[in-house]
Amino acid sequence: MRFDDKYSGNVFIGASNDFENAQAVIYGMPMDWTVSFRPGSRFGPARIRESSLVHEEYSHYLKRDLSDIIYFDAGDIPLPFGNPEKSIRAIHQFVSKVLDAGKFPLGLGGEHLVTWPVVEEVYRRYPDLAVIHIDAHADLRTDYEGEIYSHATPLRKIAERIGGSNLYQFGIRSMTREEVRYTEEAGIHFYPFEVVDPLVKCLPGLEGRPVYVTIDIDVIDPAHAPGTGTPEPGGITSREMLWAIHEIARSGAKVVGADLVEVAPAYDHSEQTPILAAKLVREMLLGFAE
């Protein structure tokens, strides 16, 4: 696998073609093979890149500019259509190379199952890893209608891998009774409905620890982000999501990787969802990638 040739398409605003000196690597995981409602998140990474051009490179929130860091956009990982197992292996291989090169991985989804192989690779290098999961759905099922490879299962796989007490879930407002029971049995730090207040309380306990941050765009109310495969009313605002990213960035936690998933552009003709996602990615780059 070569990093001097991008896989495909446009690049995120301000991206460098200098992989060797890059602090962070943006990469797409265009997979939606296991979704339970509306497909189309495989087109999310490309549209987020295109939408990034509407934004300034300067963040007044963080008082930083994208020119302050070097980041490389590797394009989308070529994933075999309809084959989740091979796709997961391809993500493993790609992320392993990024981490071996000492780069900060920032992934664009794709469905949420893509987060599982990324966290596995990060966990191999940081055995005391904690995961911050911000989402409308718990994603703690063992399977979905008999299928273990599903976007309803990645956080269950992650909890079983890193230990439930190392998983922090915020904003969840759609779950099964069995998933709620599992959060209690596994010792997961589970905060339904809200993000802002519980995050403030939890971040001091993560000071100094390596943390992976995974954000599902559907944590945001569909009024602000309708372009997703499983919209769930009653979510947070885009302003609250930006605030959460900034609080994580300013905390003492050591963010070692992140992703933003489940943008499905076809369901938002106004393009407000990919435009918002691109702004969130800008803030994650400036806030998380040292």
From TrEMBL:
The keyword Metal-binding applies. One of its GO terms (molecular function) is metal ion binding. One of its GO terms (biological process) is putrescine biosynthetic process from arginine, via agmatine. InterPro entries: Agmatinase-rel, Ureohydrolase, Ureohydrolase_dom_sf, Ureohydrolase_Mn_BS. Belongs to the arginase family. Agmatinase subfamily. It holds the Pfam family Arginase. This is Agmatinase. Keywords: Hydrolase, Manganese, Metal-binding. PROSITE patterns: ARGINASE_1, ARGINASE_2. The gene is speB. The keyword Manganese applies. Mn(2+) binds at residues 112, 135, 137, 139, 216, 218. Its EC number is 3.5.3.11. Binds 2 manganese ions per subunit. Its cofactor is Mn(2+). NCBIfam families: agmatinase.
